């Protein structure tokens, strides 16, 4: 199964440039690249910060952009989003029984679980008792089948002094639940605007830097430096039968000289 992960789109006003980039154009280029190269994907998951301010106009623009995406999609909110405006613009997106943007995608071999960790008005993420109860019920229904979790906020400290305080609050509540069930194979998230991979509670995780600017890699201090690095999305290949997950980063705007690996001849100008 192939899954595309796009994160931190941060759509603002039409024509606005943020840190030198037109994020509307970036999203359009991202979608065009996915259509051209990964139209066979099962799903394209947008893991939060769909907009910059949660404005209704931004969700309308997002809806227009997604109308050109040939792959089925799933939307999750991040701290820059506003749940009510998101749901108003996309009334068809699945919600749980408490109105959170949480859902599951079932296949014969695995289940994909999409979590809403938005804490309205705050940068940090949260998973309240109701959201965790929903997750526990879905894991019980999975009955040991491999599960893959998608969310916006990291449930793990990443060694980044600026960003770690802004992660998921009380992550041990989530991790304890996942550890108890023992069938979650991978956690996918965004929020930190960097490509990061590791393990937490024995579970593999990966973060995508997404479409917005990248935060400087500052491990020894809190940094406000933002780098206009190439935008990226992830191509996730899942083979549950063989307990195999591969995550490729795709820098879709980069154009490099191309050479023949056999002769060394340059193939592009």
Automatic annotation (TrEMBL):
<dbReference type="GO" id="GO:0046872">
    <property type="term" value="F:metal ion binding"/>
</dbReference>
<protein>
    <submittedName>
        <fullName>Calcineurin-like phosphoesterase family protein</fullName>
    </submittedName>
</protein>
<feature type="domain" description="Calcineurin-like phosphoesterase">
    <location>
        <begin position="1"/>
        <end position="194"/>
    </location>
</feature>
<keyword id="KW-0378">Hydrolase</keyword>
<dbReference type="InterPro" id="IPR029052">
    <property type="entry name" value="Metallo-depent_PP-like"/>
</dbReference>
<dbReference type="GO" id="GO:0004112">
    <property type="term" value="F:cyclic-nucleotide phosphodiesterase activity"/>
</dbReference>
<dbReference type="InterPro" id="IPR050884">
    <property type="entry name" value="CNP_phosphodiesterase-III"/>
</dbReference>
<keyword id="KW-0479">Metal-binding</keyword>
<dbReference type="InterPro" id="IPR004843">
    <property type="entry name" value="Calcineurin-like_PHP"/>
</dbReference>
<dbReference type="Pfam" id="PF00149">
    <property type="entry name" value="Metallophos"/>
</dbReference>
<comment type="similarity">
    <text>Belongs to the cyclic nucleotide phosphodiesterase class-III family.</text>
</comment>
<dbReference type="InterPro" id="IPR026575">
    <property type="entry name" value="GpdQ/CpdA-like"/>
</dbReference>
<keyword id="KW-0408">Iron</keyword>
């Amino acid at each position: 199964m192939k899954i595309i992960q796009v994160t931190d789109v941060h759509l603002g006003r039409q024509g606005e440039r943020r840190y030198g980039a037109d994020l509307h154009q970036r999203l359009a280029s991202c979608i065009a690249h996915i259509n051209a190269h990964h139209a066979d994907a099962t799903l394209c998951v947008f893991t939060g910060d769909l907009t910059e301010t949660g404005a209704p106009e931004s969700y309308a623009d997002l809806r227009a952009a997604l109308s050109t995406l040939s792959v089925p999609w799933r939307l999750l909110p991040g701290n820059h989003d506003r749940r009510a405006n998101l749901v108003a613009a996309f009334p068809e997106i699945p919600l749980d029984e408490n109105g959170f943007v949480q859902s599951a995608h079932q296949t014969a071999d695995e289940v994909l679980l999409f979590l809403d960790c938005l804490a309205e008005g705050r940068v940090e993420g949260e998973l309240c008792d109701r959201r965790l109860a929903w997750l526990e019920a879905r894991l019980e229904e999975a009955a040991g089948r491999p599960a893959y979790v998608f969310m916006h906020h990291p449930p793990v400290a990443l060694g980044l002094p600026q960003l770690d305080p802004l992660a998921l609050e009380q992550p041990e509540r989530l991790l304890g639940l996942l550890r108890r069930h023992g069938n979650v194979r991978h956690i996918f998230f965004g929020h930190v605007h960097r490509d990061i991979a590791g393990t937490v509670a024995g579970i593999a995780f990966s973060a995508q830097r997404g479409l917005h600017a990248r935060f400087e890699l500052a491990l020894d201090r809190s940094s406000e430096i933002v780098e206009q690095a190439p935008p990226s999305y992830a191509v996730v290949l899942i083979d549950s039968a063989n307990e195999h997950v591969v995550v490729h980063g795709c820098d879709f705007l980069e154009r490099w000289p191309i050479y023949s690996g056999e002769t060394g001849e340059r193939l592009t100008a």
